[in-house]
């Protein structure tokens, strides 16, 4: 793992980000909604890059058998303590587990592998361990996410951030300086690009789903108010 990425996740933000509220909660709820459409009853699920088990936890509560793989030992320690979850340190490009799994989730690795060849390896490893007819679900970050995040949180007032955004839009490579609070090294996909990579890796693509959309640009306080009223996010 890139050392900058490792240092970013050692700060512990990932465990809180999806649990606390705001746009992290929005991402969590939408991801949960999409996953439940594809996961059958009592499935064997492999969560690759599953961090501290935010999704593995509810999947286990839903009755699934969950195995989590993550490159960060500190993440694996936390996830492995969750009821119904087993966890192991490993690389998405060379999984330390064998299948067959009914469902494989790639919700962390794809946007932290800047090289296309490495992303294809991750897709192919998922294909290797999923059962015939099983499901592989991958998540990526959109090409304009850094620009939108910068506008939302005023990062664009820093000329260095504007340089990061310009390079990211041009090349897909989000490469922030290490002395900033900005999101760490990532690859930002065009909307159709992830499906193209999955097909090249040998998977049959059934769809691409937007997770957050324009709602992501609302303030965390506004989103928390919306979460308090189920009618605003369940329709």
From TrEMBL:
Which keywords fit this entry according to its UniProt record? Methyltransferase, S-adenosyl-L-methionine, Transferase, Ubiquinone
Give the protein's recorded name.
Ubiquinone/menaquinone biosynthesis C-methylase UbiE
Question: Which InterPro entries does the record match to this protein?
Answer: Methyltransf_25, SAM-dependent_MTases_sf
Q: Its Gene Ontology molecular function terms?
A: methyltransferase activity
Protein's organism: Saccharothrix saharensis
One GO term under biological process is: methylation
Against SUPFAM superfamilies, the record matches this protein to: S-adenosyl-L-methionine-dependent methyltransferases (SSF53335)
Residue stretches making up the Methyltransferase domain: 45-134
| Pfam families membership | Methyltransf_25
């Amino acid at each position: 793992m890139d050392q900058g990425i490792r240092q970013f996740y050692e700060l512990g933000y990932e465990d809180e980000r999806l649990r606390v509220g705001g746009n992290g909660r929005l991402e969590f709820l939408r991801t949960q909604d999409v996953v439940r459409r594809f996961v059958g009853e009592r499935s064997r699920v492999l969560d690759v890059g599953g961090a501290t088990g935010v999704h593995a936890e509810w999947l286990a509560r839903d009755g699934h058998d969950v195995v989590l793989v993550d490159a960060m030992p500190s993440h694996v320690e936390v996830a492995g303590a969750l009821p119904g979850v087993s966890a192991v340190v490993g690389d998405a490009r060379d999984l330390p587990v064998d299948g067959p799994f009914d469902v494989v989730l790639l919700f962390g690795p794809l946007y932290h592998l800047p090289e296309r060849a490495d992303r294809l390896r991750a897709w192919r490893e998922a294909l290797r361990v999923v059962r015939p007819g099983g499901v592989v679900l991958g998540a990526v970050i959109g090409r304009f996410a850094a620009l939108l995040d910068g506008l939302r949180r005023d990062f664009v007032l820093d000329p260095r951030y504007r340089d990061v955004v310009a390079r990211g839009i041009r090349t897909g490579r989000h490469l922030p300086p290490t002395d900033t609070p900005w999101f760490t090294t990532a690859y930002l996909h065009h909307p159709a690009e992830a499906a193209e990579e999955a097909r090249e890796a040998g998977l049959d693509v059934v769809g691409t789903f937007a997770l957050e959309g324009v709602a992501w640009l609302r303030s965390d306080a506004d989103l928390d108010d919306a979460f308090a009223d189920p009618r605003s996010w369940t329709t």
